[in-house]
Specification:
alpha+beta, 10 helices, binds coenzyme A
Length: about 375
């Protein structure tokens, strides 16, 4: 058995930003237009008028201030309300592969590795732009990696579940150097016309290099242990899929073909699940909460993270102990906790312990206990 370690990380951040004010201005223009176009039906009581959104609500309900996206023009066009992404030919890299390549190159550079050192690519994300061939195999080819590659989807927990899969294979010796990459184009599956959720998501890609600790070229994080759990729930759901055209109204503009959630229920049900999960993981690993230097949590909601931090640590987290990035990136599904890890881990010292934890649709919860090592 070999000790698996995270030896490099990378984040690709799209160039375009949408602030809450820009988002709300476009949404409210869409609402005015919708209500004017449907005035008679609204008047007759056949459909409900849409209510406007507000920046104050978004910030106080979620902690989100802005989000990065691959295309803002389509999202902010009140006559469209979803991104415009160029149709690519089959013989050029897809958009997910292109985002992935950027994040993977940064992670490989941090690990002082080449693409050719990699023998496993896991593309772990909450949506994949096509059914097959796997995006991961396209990334493998673009990186010049060997071995094998596959896609996996556990929604917001895709990254931590991917880390467990890669770490277990490195530990067993079936792979030597893995990349877990999470290209999340959440702008594609967000319903920008629904004020309950139009502010939630952003786009990003993260990548982690996972290899034997003994192969590390510089400072690294040993993966001490991982823990994954799932429990079925319909409270976060997207019904889009390959059977769509077989259904009577399958190709029509249906609300359930985009992200849907019952936010309040998610809040209530997922919080205790996550707190208990982290407690059990630490207990099993023989680590006390007060030994953790840092928590890198899933980035969906600031109040949620404050609650989990308090529950796990038994006190209010100190500044920097539980860094949030959601104010800048919004919820980026599986990538959120990895962005927090990538941007807020360099200051840890030899022997410091930290925990990455994601949670979301499924329900799913994944946690990864890591220990900083200065060098091999
Ligand atoms: N602007 C203004 N008001 C809005 C609004 C908007 N954009 N969206 C909703 N509101 C209103 C609602 O209509 C409601 O009004 P009411 O009290 O008169 O009925 C009120 O604000 C509260 O709405 P609610 O949906 O209950 O807000 P919330 O406090 O639950 O916050 C979320 C919404 C989505 C931010 C929050 O539920 C959340 O983050 N949940 C967990 C999400 C999560 O982790 N998901 C995982 C996904 S990967």
């Amino acid at each position: 058995m070999y000790q698996p370690a995270i030896t490099g990380s990378g984040v690709f951040t799209p160039e375009q930003v949408i602030t809450n004010d820009e988002l709300v201005a476009a949404f409210n223009a869409y609402v005015s237009r919708y209500n004017a176009e449907n005035a008679a039906a609204i008047e007759a009581g056949d459909i409900e008028a849409k209510a406007p959104s507000s920046s104050d609500f978004i910030y106080s309900a979620s902690g989100i201030e802005q989000r990065y996206v691959m295309d803002k023009t389509g999202v902010l066009d009140p006559g469209r309300m979803f991104p415009k992404l160029r149709q690519r030919n089959d013989d050029e890299p897809g958009i997910m592969a292109e985002m992935a390549l950027d994040a993977c190159r940064t992670a490989l550079k941090a690990a002082q590795r080449q693409g050719s050192d990699v023998d496993l690519v896991i593309c772990a994300a909450s949506n994949h732009e096509r059914a097959y061939p796997a995006i991961a195999i396209e990334i493998q080819q673009l990186l010049g990696a060997g071995g094998f590659a596959f896609d996996m989807n556990v929604a917001c927990s895709s990254a931590t579940f991917g880390i467990q899969a890669a770490a277990d294979m490195v530990r067993a010796g079936s792979v030597r150097c893995a990349i877990v990459v999470c290209p999340e184009i959440c702008s594609g599956h967000l319903e920008w016309r629904d004020r309950d959720c139009h502010f939630i998501f952003g786009d990003v890609c993260t990548a982690l290099v996972i290899e034997r600790a003994e192969d590390a070229q510089g400072a690294y994080f040993t993966i001490r242990s991982t823990r994954c759990a799932t429990q079925f729930s319909n409270n976060i759901r997207n019904n889009n899929g390959f059977l769509r055209r077989t259904r009577p109204d399958g190709t029509s503009d249906r609300r359930d073909m985009q992200f849907m959630q019952n936010g309040r229920k998610v809040f209530k049900e997922v919080l205790p699940m996550v707190s208990a999960h982290i407690g059990d993981h630490l207990g099993e690993a023989g680590v006390r909460a007060d030994q953790l230097r840092r928590l890198w949590l899933h980035q969906a909601n600031k109040t949620m993270n404050d609650f989990i931090g308090r529950k796990v640590l038994g006190r209010d987290p100190e500044p920097g102990e539980q860094p949030n990035i959601l104010q800048d990136y919004a919820n980026t599904s599986s990538a959120g906790s990895i962005i927090a890890f990538s941007k807020h881990s360099d200051d840890l010292g030899d022997g410091d312990l930290g925990l990455i934890c994601s949670f979301g649709a499924g329900y799913s919860v994944g946690s990864v206990l890591v220990e900083r090592k200065d060098s091999a």
